[in-house]
Amino acid sequence: MNGLKAFLGFGFTMLISMYSLGQPPHLLQVFNTSNSPLPEDNIRALTIAPDSTLWIGTENGLATLKNGIWGTISTFNTYQIRAIAFDSSGYAWVGTFLNGLWVQTDTGWINHTTINSTLPDNFVRTISFCPNGDAWIGTVAGAAKISNNTWTVYRQSNTNWYTEHVAASYCSPANEVWLGGINSGLMKQQGPSWFIYRTMATGLPDNTILDIKQTANGALWLAMPAAGTAAFDGNLGWVYYNTLTSFNPSNSINHIAIGNSGNMYFASADKGLVVYAGGLAWFHLSSTVRPDTSGTFLPTDELLTLVQDHDGNIWASASNMGLLRIQFLDSTTAAPSINLLATTLLYPNPAADVAVIESTISDLTITLTNIAGQAVFTAIATSPQTKIPLSHLPRGIYMVVLQSHQAREVRRLVVY
Fold first, then answer.
1. Residue 246: which CATH number?
2. In terms of DSSP bridges, do strands 211-214 and 220-224 run parallel, antiparallel, or are they unpaired?
């Protein structure tokens, strides 16, 4: 597998995710119904409007937030919002659960349903726009393209699709349309037909895709609930990023945001906010892990969606726990500080019987995991040297996780 080959090609003593970010004390803010006008703590859609307003789609209405000022849009009171997008004219399009598609105009909102339009279903999960102005609406029963007010509907009956449940959509700068869904695979429109990437035939790691994004270099990134994330460039094929092939801590990704500085941010279902800074640099912020000294943890490990604003703040929805505002110091604001674990030694590497961790850090926790992420050794350093017994372990590649109150680092250890 391409991702695994790339992973194994690095030197044995490569330092992996080594960030002591030196975050400010107020790294995290949590907004919920008890401390804000947020109408509901379960949020399924987040979008930054052209005027920098944050639009928040909840299971009980639509709220807005800009410069600390909250608002609501009464049209959607009690509605369950599942998708929000803005067209090139700055008008909002809102997808709902069972209440169809709503389009903003100069005079108000127009509601498209299965009764007054050819919308395939009133449960709208995704909305995206092409540079040529086409709108793509994904529902649980097919997709609709709206081009110059003309609707074209795509279902199993008139395509080669495996299922009709469309959960993700993306249109590239070249007007290439990509759709993904529940057990649908990744579908690319090619004229009147569709090319479908599936796990058995094309190497797609998961047939369920919840989000699609494309980076500036053209790589297509997918959010998958059972296989982490994968990048596809159309030529070299797939590169997988999951717990087996990378230092991505999660195999369950709900949503993707491409950061202003090029970092990738992932809303995971089990590890909180996952951050990929390129190369082998992965870290995450969760209910038990933080890459800084702020003392702030997420209220839950399950995030549903996220977006980054123009100031670099990450806004994420915590499952049934409201809205999170997370401030990260990345290249948009300041460079990471020097890692305090950089002076920690691991030797020999490769090793056969015993590996040694040498460090002067007093609160260092050492965990050895196999490539499946299972802990096979854990210890708290009580002296400058800690020995890790290896003779009972199968040969292979292991991860040495070094954790202190100020930093976290992962190193690779080869056992032979």
1. 2.130.10.10
2. antiparallel
Question: Residues 6 or more apart from 131 whose CB is under 8 A from it?
Answer: 171, 173, 175
Distance, CA of 324 to CA of 23 (rounded, Å):
16
Q: Same domain, yes or no, for 42 and 130?
A: yes
Assess whether the previous peptide bond of 192 is cis (omega < 30° from 0).
no
> Does a structural domain hold residue 118?
yes
Q: Would you state the structure tokens that stand for residue 363, as one six-digit string?
A: 């609160």
Question: What is the strand order of the sheet 81-86 is part of?
Answer: 81-86, 92-96, 101-105, 108-112
pTM of the full structure? 0.76
Q: Could you tell me the residue range of the domain that residue 376 belongs to?
A: 345-415
Whether residue 114 sits in one domain with residue 62: yes
Please report, in tens digits, the pLDDT of each residue of the chain (416 residues total).
333 333 222 222 222 233 333 333 337 899 999 999 999 999 999 999 999 999 999 999 999 999 999 999 999 999 999 999 999 999 999 999 999 999 999 999 999 999 999 999 999 999 999 999 999 999 999 999 999 999 999 999 999 999 999 999 999 999 999 999 999 999 999 988 999 999 987 878 999 999 999 998 888 999 999 999 999 876 657 888 998 888 899 999 999 999 887 889 999 999 999 998 877 778 888 998 876 656 678 999 999 999 999 888 999 999 999 999 998 644 333 333 335 455 688 899 889 999 999 988 877 889 998 866 688 999 999 889 999 999 999 988 788 888 876 666 777 788 98
Strands 61-66 and 135-139: unpaired
Report if residue 333 sits inside a domain. no
Determine the Cα–Cα distance for residues 112 and 118; give it in Å rounded to an integer: 8
Pair of tokens at residue 250: 């999660």
C-alpha to C-alpha distances, 108 to 48, 124, 151, 202, 287, nearest whole angstrom: 20, 20, 21, 45, 42
Could you tell me if residue 334 is inside a domain?
no
Nearest residue to 317 (alpha-carbon basis) of 32, 19, 110 = 32
Say if residue 350 is preceded by a cis peptide, omega within 30 of 0. yes
- Runs of H (alpha helix) within 308-391: none
- CATH label of the domain that carries residue 349: 2.60.40.3080
The answer for 312, left when phi > 0, alpha when psi is -120 to 50, beta otherwise, is left
Is the distance from CB of 79 to CB of 99 less than 8 angstroms?
yes
What's the CA gap between 39 and 60, in Å, rounded? 6
Which of 359, 361, 377 is closest to 369 using CA atoms?
Answer: 377
